[in-house]
Amino acid sequence: MPYETPAVGRRRLLLMAPAAAAAATTADPAGAAPRHTTGSPGHPGADARAARIDVHHHYTAPAWLAWAERAGLVDPAQLPWWTRWDLDTTLALMDRAGIAKAVVSPAMPVRGFTSPAQRRESVAVALDAAAELTAAHPDRFAFFTPVFPDDPETSRWSIARGLDELGAVGVQTRANTRGVYLGDPSHDRLLAELDERSAVINTHPHELPGTDPARPAVPGIPAFYCDFPLDTTRAAVNLVLNGTLDRYPRLSFVLPHGGGFLPFIATRMEAFAHFLTPKTDAARVRDYLHRFYYDTAAPLGEPAASALLAVADPTRILYGSDWPASPAATITDIAGPALDRDSGLTLLQRRRINRDNALRLMPALADHPRTPGR
Length: 374
Known about the structure:
By secondary structure, this protein is of the alpha/beta class. The protein has helices at residues 62-70, 87-97, 116-136, 152-166, 188-196, 223-241, 244-247, 266-271, 282-291, 302-311, 328-340, 347-361, and strands at residues 52-59, 99-106, 141-146, 170-174, 176-177, 180-181, 200-204, 252-255, 293-295, 317-318. It has twelve helices and ten strands.
């Protein structure tokens, strides 16, 4: 999660490019507005624009915020706006954006804990809040459980508590932890345990190693603006380099923000794969680019969408809002209409991105289909 306040420009965005869309024949009325009703989203030809599943949703639980303040870990007045998550505001945004269900990622904006026990208590409070939210609104929310590659014990506890007991649909982790990127051999024990569960690993970037979040490397350019996409790209390349998906074939990695810079450098990665250490061949690069999942949060513009669709099948792309880090207007007025009307994708392709791909990847999301209202 970004700790700085982003200044998101209100520019015209095209989410998906027609030239790169995979073949499909289902037509869609031109310029049709989203229908904010549930209708019959399970029907193969149904429009899923009012039944989106959002896999990129940050959740700083009010209960966790109160706990962290009591523990002296945060000063709410100094925290960025996206930590002020509110249920009514969120549900209203989801209704306007046609989001039927959001998979929330517990966000705990603390730079350091006083002890491992305090960190585990933090995770416990966040997980309990996410589970309570899901239980109170099973048709609207699900959640990921956090894991920490630098803290195997807390991670194993979070996996057992979140996945096995509370019903999380996957895990959430950072692209790099203390400068060590996903796929590093030091993560093998954790990845093996997740592989046994065929886990979905939802990733998110952060500040680049060696940078101070309070002092941007380039004055005036916050980390989320350029560094976050690079952080995601580094993690993806490291996963390729270490053959992580070959060693743990039941894992599914979701790369945020359209995969960062990865789609743009796909050809470069293939051409110069032999310069990596150890040497890698182009075939592995291509294979991994097709095996990753990608979310649409950014928001994605036409150039990024074209590049993404050139390396990823639409069945591997998932809808993501980035709420509440992204302003409501960006989600409802820019990203949504771009996908709904201006993408060039067919109804079936948009349906897959909006909903079906997430259901196929995380079938438990279908346990509580949306009903009208809350």
